[in-house]
C-alpha cells in the first residue's frame, strides 16, 4: 500500500487560537503515527498563489491519513483554526 501525504498551505491570521489548533493537531498526528516532513521553514515562491506556512505530513497510507483528518481529536483542533487562518489542505497518495 502506498504512503499518503497531507499537504497544507496556510496563512495564519490570529496566532493565539492557531496555536491551540497546532497543539491539538499535533496530538492527532502522533496518535496516527504521522511523520512530519516539513512544517513552516524557508520556501521559494515559484508559481501560483502561495501561503507563508507549508506543511507536509507522511502517513502509512490513505486510509490512515483520512482517519486522522476525520478523528475527534483533529476535528476538535480544527475548530480553533477556522477563524485563525486560511488553509488549503489536501491528502495525496504516494507513487
Number of helices: 3
Which secondary-structure class do the elements indicate?
A: alpha+beta
Per DSSP, what share of the residues sits in E-state strands of 2 or more residues? 25-35%
Coarse morphology: globular
Portion in helices: 25-40%
Lateral strand order in the biggest sheet: 2-3-1-4
Q: Span between N and C termini? A: 10 Å
Radius of gyration: 13 Å
What is the strand and helix layout of this fold?
Elements: E1 4-12, H1 15-31, E2 35-39, E3 53-59, H2 62-70, H3 72-81, E4 85-93
Antiparallel strand pairs: 1-3, 1-4, 2-3
Helix pairs in contact: 1-3
Write a brief structural summary.
The chain is an alpha+beta fold and 95 residues long. It has helices at 15-31, 62-70, 72-81; strands at residues 4-12, 35-39, 53-59, 85-93.
Your description of this structure?
With 95 residues, the protein is α+β, with helices and mostly antiparallel strands. It contains 3 helices and 4 strands. It has helices at residues 15-31, 62-70, 72-81; strands spanning 4-12, 35-39, 53-59, 85-93. It has a 4-stranded antiparallel beta sheet with strand order 2-3-1-4, with helices on one face. Helix 1 (15-31) packs antiparallel against helix 3 (72-81). The protein starts with a strand and ends with a strand.
Amino acid at each position: 500500500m502506498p504512503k499518503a501525504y497531507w499537504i497544507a498551505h496556510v496563512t495564519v491570521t490570529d496566532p493565539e487560537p492557531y496555536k491551540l489548533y497546532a497543539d491539538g493537531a499535533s496530538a492527532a498526528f502522533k496518535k496516527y503515527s504521522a511523520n512530519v516532513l516539513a512544517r513552516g521553514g524557508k520556501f521559494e515562491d515559484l508559481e501560483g498563489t502561495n501561503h507563508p506556512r507549508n506543511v507536509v505530513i507522511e502517513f502509512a497510507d490513505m486510509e490512515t491519513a483520512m482517519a486522522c483528518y476525520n478523528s475527534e481529536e483533529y476535528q476538535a483542533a480544527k475548530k480553533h483554526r477556522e477563524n485563525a487562518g486560511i488553509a488549503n489542505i489536501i491528502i495525496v497518495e504516494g507513487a
